[in-house]
Design brief:
about 20% helix; Jelly Rolls; 3 helices; 2 domains
Length: about 240
């Protein structure tokens, strides 16, 4: 049994770091274990509550995230349910809550605001929505449920820390709402539009072909050993 456990651990160690090939997963919060980052690439805290695998927040109970190292190009994906979608509702702030710039919901659409603005996609109140945003060093692109909502020159910039679902002081923290975050992932590198189109959130990573064969063989060998042991006892 010990040998089987070790072999299984070996197979799991062969898993790719992420189910996305074009970008590397560096941080993942599923809120199943508080504010634990399963990848160890960031730390997070917030004044909301964590329960049932979700981060529950009232207006301006944001989730603050500090990256272990700055990212020049990246992708951020998160699942969110907003209680109110009318007007501006800030989703991501990278200014330390000092600037009006950032990613917003605006009347049920995803919007990047200032210095240039772009809007698209459909966000419904009280409905889980998967939102993605990428920055390639020159362009910020937003996605709603896998479909591209906008692409704007410039935008977010280098990522070292950011705040989710909390408004900035420039607008008196009026542009926020309550809701829940289901998950948050940060990737080093830019996911393509085709990858965004098939992305639905964190999911179990399948074993690579070699790992599947190895684990199947080990399980078969263990089963055969048990049968032989029973047969020997019966003689």
């Amino acid at each position: 049994m010990r040998a089987l456990q070790l072999a299984t651990a070996l197979c799991l160690s062969l898993l790719p770091a992420t189910h996305i090939n074009a970008a590397t997963l560096v941080s993942q919060f599923t809120f199943d274990s508080g504010f634990t980052d399963s990848q160890g690439g960031a730390s997070a805290s917030g004044s909301g509550s964590v329960s049932g695998g979700r981060y529950n927040f009232a207006a301006n109970q944001g989730l603050g995230v500090s990256m272990g190292s700055s990212l020049l190009t990246y992708s951020i994906l998160f699942g969110v349910e907003l209680d109110v979608i009318s007007g501006y509702r800030k989703l991501i702030d990278v200014s330390g809550l000092s600037s009006d710039s950032g990613l917003y919901n605006l009347n049920g659409a995803l919007r990047y605001y200032s210095p240039t603005s772009a809007t698209g996609g459909t966000i419904l109140a009280n409905v889980d929505t998967v939102i993605g945003v990428t920055y390639d060093g020159a362009t910020t692109t937003g996605y709603v449920n896998g479909s591209q909502a906008f692409s704007v020159s410039g935008g977010l910039g280098t990522l070292s820390a950011f705040t989710m679902v909390e408004d900035d002081t420039a607008t008196g923290k009026r542009e926020a709402t309550s809701g829940t975050l289901d998950f948050l992932e940060v990737y080093s590198g830019v996911m393509s539009s085709s990858e965004m189109a098939t992305y639905t959130g964190p999911s179990p990573v399948p074993l690579p072909a070699g790992g599947v064969l190895l684990l199947t063989g080990l399980l078969g060998a263990a089963s055969l050993k048990r049968r032989n042991s029973r047969a020997a006892k019966a003689v």
